[in-house]
Amino acid sequence: MGIYAQHAPIYAAAGLPVFPVDVRNKKPAVKNWQNATPRQSRGWASSARLAANDGLGIVMGKPSGITEIDVDAVGDAWVTAALERFGQTPVVIRTASGKAKLWYRHNGEGRHVRPFNGLPIDVLGGGFTIAPPSFREDLGASYAFRTGGIEDVCILPTIKDGALSEGFTRAPEAVQRGERNDSLWRYCMSQARHCDDVEALIDVALTWTSAFPEPLPPQEAEACARSAWGYETTGRNYLGLKKPQLTKGDKIMDDLLDAPRALVLLQMFQRWHRTRPFFAIAPRAMSEAGTPPWPRRQIEHARDVLMDRGYIVEVIPPRRGVSAGHYRLADEMPKSAHNHNTFPPSHIGAVSLVEVSQ
């Protein structure tokens, strides 16, 4: 017997309606699964055709009394964050791909795929989920209870008050014909930063569009995902952000793009003097030593640019006859008027110190 035939009677005995599923493709293996009952679960388990199935699907919402928080990200930190937001629960499940599911007592929640801004979390108060110990052959791994089990379903708490309201976005069930492609593309743009590769984003897109009243054809959903992934991988995905996702170094580069020698000089100071209270800048000695390999006046000009724009602070000015002055790195990066929406160059190239000096 397969996993479904072995474990369906156990779920049925606990009053939970289960049905056989194709675990790899996350599709029910039977029709009318939405109306599954414990009695029907036992009937499917006794079917010769379905007995070898290795997947257990369980109806979410009112039929089972369960709402699932599906954490579609790997790592204990995500589980901890979900528990803090939605409340503690005795039942935490590890999926075959190492992600997590949290079970709560159903309290009227619907089915919402990625309803929270920036969080890889689904709320399944409807539809179905895959339950332990379903086995995914392509991964060679099973779904398993990390904590709790079937016997704890009767003591599940409800989701913490207010947890479902903060950051909630439009549900896919509300997306109508004529707005499907645009809605899916925007959704893919918001989820791309949480995906490891384009295949993962395509899977997210197919899951989300499956909840549309009229789902998009798979090839159209894939096209939306690939388009969004193109924006993400070329640094042009600013959708849904108040500011682009840029590092401190990116912003400094934007601010000093018109003064490349000042940018290089600042990087040298940050590398060698970031932990020092102050340091000397001796343009003549630096030029003679070739660090950097520029004329003295160019080093002086780059130093003055950094002072004028607030990246370094003069502690002791150079005196007549003494070329070195004392400086320190600014405590805070100066605020830039640049909009930081700088598009990448149309060609790939590298600029060396030698090229800058010419």
TrEMBL record:
Pfam families, per database record: Prim-Pol
SMART domains documented for this protein: Prim-Pol
Species the sequence originates in: Paracoccus alkanivorans
Record domain DNA primase/polymerase bifunctional N-terminal: where: 8-156
Stated name of the protein: DNA primase/polymerase bifunctional N-terminal domain-containing protein
Family annotation (InterPro entries): DNA_primase/pol_bifunc_N
